[in-house]
Write a structure and sequence with these properties.
The chain is mostly helical and 94 residues long. The protein has 5 helices and no strands. Keywords: Toxin-antitoxin system.
């Protein structure tokens, strides 16, 4: 493997001086260097964003109603049953 393949990928960002000072202060307060602090915050926020988009959150009552509907689906209305019968008859006659 070449040396550059083993190296970490770089990201360059531009910030205001005020933001840079704020990040530097936060890094110092957490006992980290700026790069380490920024990496940790970026990784944590990236995971949070991905999880938020990949997770379906529903209220407890809605969850219970969904599970009950899966266990005992409601009966089909007669007009839908009639359509299914006509469809099956048509397919069987072909």
């Amino acid at each position: 493997m070449e040396q550059r393949d083993r190296q970490a990928s770089r990201m360059y960002i531009r910030t205001s001086q005020a933001m840079r000072e704020q990040v530097s202060r936060a890094a110092a307060l957490s006992g980290q260097g700026v790069s380490e602090y920024v990496r940790d915050v970026l990784a944590r926020e990236a995971r949070r964003t991905i999880e938020a988009h990949e997770t379906i959150a529903i209220a407890e009552g809605d969850r219970d109603a969904f599970i009950e509907a899966m266990r005992k689906p409601p009966a089909w209305p007669e007009h839908m049953k009639a359509k299914v019968r006509r469809y099956r008859e048509r397919i069987a006659s072909e």
